[in-house]
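Structure (tokenized):
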């Protein structure tokens, strides 16, 4: 779990909720920094990206929201009558989720998902949260872990971004080329989140093309059922057990 001094995003969420913050800083290990709006983390369905709005229709049964953040997806699904468990490794994010009305939000890292949570029919990794896997090996490790708590009809709904898409910002393409040069996947980004005096530890965030997605899934017992395009580098994958 994140220490108080590391919980940059959680502090952002708390301050945004109080009207004290609008943005946070995303810092890449090549020195690049970006100011990112916090509004998206609190957005309602009509303001989600098109791929997310389409992918959410594939939710069924009991849901695990992986990296639930400020709870926007969990709240929407609750309102639709779904049984949703939200997990995040940010203590303040979980606090904000509960304050906003998420009924079951738990302080838990993806590496701690186990049978004590029960069985799920849908796993959502929205907001680009397929990136939480970090690497090719990390993705396959998480898929194996999810299989242990997945029903026979389980599916994963994941959003990501194709790092090779021509619409990707040229600065990001430079970063992806650097990743390749040092022997990493092109979309394997080393970064951290900063806000005021808070900073997360450095972590890997993985972006994958559809071809790379299928390479990751090969032999895991999971396969892509459908891709949902958005006319941009971002897309969603509906992944099912096979």
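Design, position by position:
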């Amino acid at each position: 779990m994140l220490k108080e001094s590391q919980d940059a995003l959680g502090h952002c969420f708390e301050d945004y909720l109080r009207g004290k913050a609008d943005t946070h800083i995303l810092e890449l290990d090549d020195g690049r920094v970006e100011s990112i709006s916090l509004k998206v983390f609190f957005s309602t369905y009509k303001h989600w990206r098109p791929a997310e709005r389409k992918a959410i229709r594939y939710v069924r049964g009991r849901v695990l929201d992986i990296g639930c953040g400020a709870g926007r997806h969990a709240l929407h699904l609750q309102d639709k009558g779904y049984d949703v468990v939200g997990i995040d490794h940010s203590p303040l994010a979980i606090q904000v989720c509960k304050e906003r009305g998420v009924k079951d939000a738990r302080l838990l890292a993806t590496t701690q998902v186990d049978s004590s949570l029960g069985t799920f029919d849908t796993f959502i990794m929205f907001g680009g949260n397929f990136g939480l896997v970090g690497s090719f090996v990390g993705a396959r490790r998480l898929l194996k872990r999810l299989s242990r708590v997945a029903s026979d009809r389980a599916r994963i709904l994941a959003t990501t971004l194709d790092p090779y898409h021509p619409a990707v910002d040229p600065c990001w393409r430079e970063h992806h080329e650097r990743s390749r040069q040092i022997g990493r996947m092109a979309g394997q980004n080393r970064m951290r989140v900063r806000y005021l005096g808070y900073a997360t530890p450095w972590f890997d965030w993985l972006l994958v093309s559809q071809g790379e997605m299928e390479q990751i899934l090969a032999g895991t017992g999971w396969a892509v059922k459908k891709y949902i395009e958005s006319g941009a580098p971002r897309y969603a994958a509906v992944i099912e057990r096979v």
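Reviewer-requested clarification: The chain is about 25% helix and 30% strand. The chain has one domain: 48-185+205-241.
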